Amino acid sequence: MLHRQCRLTAAFRLFDLGDPVNVASRLQDATKIYGLPIIAGEQTAAAAPELAFLEIDTMTLRGKGRPERIFALLGDATVARTERFGSLRTAIDVLIGALLANDRTAAQTKLEECGALDWRDLGRCSRSTALA
User: Which tens digit of pLDDT belongs to each residue from 85-128?
Assistant: First the structure.
């Protein structure tokens, strides 16, 4: 009986590890869809508020019942503290709100603003100015 109980306990521990590993695998697959090197779930982004995470979408991951907010990691704490990243984060938040409200005009305006902030270059600009 003790042997059976130990096997059940070990199985539950593996199950506890399995869900985060499955979510990580699904998010890794999503990097190909979005063309981004690092995508994190809501729990990870919330656990590291000092990093430059931007919400990019809400998607239902395979095997999960509810949608998950997903975030792109654009840089470290140095990037997160830049004025440009703050402007981008604000513009993205307003863009998401406009999309949810079905306000196409506001969404288009914010999308253009986000494009002008050139988020793909954020990390490089931060490193070069930090070294100067």
Answer: 999 999 989 988 999 899 999 989 888 888 888 776 665 544 44
Q: Are residues 64 and 112 in the same domain?
A: no
Buried-exposed string 45-69: b where 16+ CB fall within 10 A, e elsewhere: beebeebbbbbbeebebeeeeeebb
- Distance, C-alpha 25 to centroid of its chain: 14
Q: Cα–Cα distances in Å, from 124 out to 62, 76, 110, 118, 130?
A: 34, 11, 23, 11, 10
pLDDT in tens, 1-20: 444 444 445 545 555 556 67
Total number of domains in the chain = 2
Find the length of the chain. 132
Domain carrying residue 85? 77-132
Does the model's pTM come out above 0.85?
Answer: no
User: What is the rounded distance in angstroms from the CA atom of residue 86 to the CA atom of residue 114?
Assistant: 11
Give the integer Cα–Cα distance in Å for 48 and 39: 13
- Helix or strand or coil: residue 117? coil
